[in-house]
Specification:
1 helix, about 140 residues, mainly beta, five-stranded mixed beta sheet, five-stranded antiparallel beta sheet
Length: about 140
């Protein structure tokens, strides 16, 4: 019976796994996500050029000008404490960034950060040069 249960359990767990990220297309630019913010829970793609995306784990864009919208979820302090532990609450922000010069075959990093209640995103190239920052932030 145990021998039967192991394959069944593996089957159920694999059904929950997300689909593999597609291979990098050398004709497009690839944008990865990162965050150094403690308490950050999620940085993911939301929209590309005003269109919702099916897979928010990455952006892959043709060369040229694009507007990226990113969802950034992170914790903020509430000021209260419970038994000596600081309490936090979740904050979700949607931030838009525009960059005019994406290059085919290049990798970029979009970094989400927050300082208390104030989030921002920055786009860096592979040499870690700052290319763009958000132009709008909408938090809920």
């Amino acid at each position: 019976m145990r021998q039967f249960m192991l394959p069944v359990a593996a089957l159920f767990l694999s059904a929950c796994a997300s689909p593999p990220i597609p291979p990098v297309d050398p004709q497009q630019a690839w944008v990865d996500f990162t965050t150094p913010t403690p308490g950050a829970k999620l940085v993911m793609a939301q929209r590309l050029d005003g269109k919702n995306l099916n897979d928010g784990r990455f952006f892959q864009v043709p060369p040229g000008r694009h507007e990226l919208m990113v969802r950034f979820d992170f914790e903020v302090p509430t000021g209260g404490s419970l038994g000596g532990l600081s309490q936090t609450q979740d904050r979700t922000c949607f931030m838009t960034l525009q960059y005019d010069n994406f290059q085919a075959g290049q990798r970029y990093v979009l970094e989400g950060r927050s300082l208390a209640f104030t989030p921002n995103i920055r786009l860096y190239n592979a040499a870690r040069q700052l290319l763009a920052e958000e132009r709008s932030v909408n938090c809920i």
